[in-house]
Amino acid sequence: MSSKKPAAPVQGGLFGTTLCCPDIDNLPLIVEPQGSIEVFAPGSVYQPLLLSPSQDDIDVGPGKLDVHEEAFVRDLIRRLYPAGNHPKSDKTPLKWGNKDIWLKRNIEKRDDSFRLRVDDSDWFYPDFIVWIVDYETRTQIFGFVDPKGLALGASGGWSDYKIVSTLYVPHVVERQLAASGQKVEFEGEEWTFQVRGLLVSTSSFASLSAHDKFNLTDADGKSVPPSEADFNRGRIVFQKTDTSYIDDVLKLLTEDSAVDHLLNLSARLFNDNAYFTPSGEMEHDLVLRHGENTQTESEFVAALIRDYLKPDSKGQHGDWASKNRRRQLMDYAAEGRWGFGEEKVSDIRDHPAPCEELWTRKKKAG
């Protein structure tokens, strides 16, 4: 038996610093200059995460992250632990208030990695899994985050498969799990399980909003650039030089918007083929759209996003969709409300719920 001692680690720190770890199995996730940040890959089954070998004959996987991916992990740790008292064990979760956060690296192009797709698109492999466990509400959120330059990395704009996979496919996954009767149980109790994701844009807001592929429809039917808040509702957060954007990341992983509600119902219509009674203008327009649809699922979702992501001056979504439905209602004025006589244009022009009214009339017409 050899009496030689194991060789000392030869991997240098990400920032040119010396690693404070005893052996290669405990390489830290990130080491900052002067050792101000050192995190041992919380909850990750893949070690090391971010390091690249300093010698050509050493193979370290799953490969280093680029500067933006490194920044995301570093900013997450800094935001959660501004005092620097972060955990330094791969068996200790990060803490966000009373919630546990387990950060995992997702490996691309492996069958056992987390991946999503819609229609017949390529598979989308997000870079990070951010698993959030809330013991108070018994909720587990399987979150995913992908830092990416979207000016070139999302060539299709809102219809790009990475964006549709991020906004819409999590709702499809949840519906499929519910349909199969699968439940999440932990410590003898049933838990709520959600899948939510977002993209961290390494392209600036100015560069991304200049691309017509991300334009939205305003209340007057015009194609206009999105605001940063619009992008945020579209689950795109811009990476900043400070850590403030991490608040938006965590909020999007744990809170849904009215647009998310529409996407959830869309997943039900497309995947369960289950009927539900719509309530309110947005849901009635959604059901009408589905009945009229000749598009792919991705195209349907992208059109929905373009029409609903930007709110009007009162903060309401879908104003242009309602105006379109009001125009369609005008076709009924010639025949009259009940199929005879004349119907006043004002009855339609001033109707408070044109989407619901059109849905009701089409339903009666069979």
The geometry reads as: globular
Structural class: alpha+beta
Strand content: 5-15%
User: What's the total helix number?
Assistant: 13
Distance separating the two termini? 84 Å
Radius of gyration: 25 Å
Helix content: 25-40%
| pLDDT averaged over residues | 80
Total number of domains: 3
Question: Helix and strand string, N-terminal first?
Answer: EEHEEEEHHHEEHEEHEHHHHHHH
Oligomeric status: single chain
Number of beta-strand segments: 11
Largest sheet properties: 7 strands, mixed
Low-confidence stretches: 1-53
Q: Could you characterize what this model shows?
A:
- The chain is of the alpha+beta class and about 375 residues long.
- It is about 35% helix and about 15% strand.
- Strands 3, 4, 5, 6, 7, 8 and 11 form a seven-stranded mixed beta sheet that branches.
- Helix 4 packs across helix 8 (about 260-270), helix 8 (about 260-270) runs parallel beside helix 9 (about 280-290) and helix 11 (about 320-330) packs across helix 13 (about 355-365).
- The longest helix has 15 residues, at about 260-270.
- The protein starts with about 30 loop residues before the first strand and ends with a helix.
- Residues about 1-55 have low confidence and may be disordered.
Entry summary:
The chain has helices spanning 67-80, 150-153, 161-167, 169-179, 205-209, 228-233, 245-254, 258-272, 280-292, 297-308, 319-329, 345-349, 354-365, and strands spanning 30-31, 38-39, 94-96, 99-105, 128-134, 139-148, 184-186, 189-201, 216-217, 223-224, 236-238. It has 366 residues and is of the alpha+beta class.
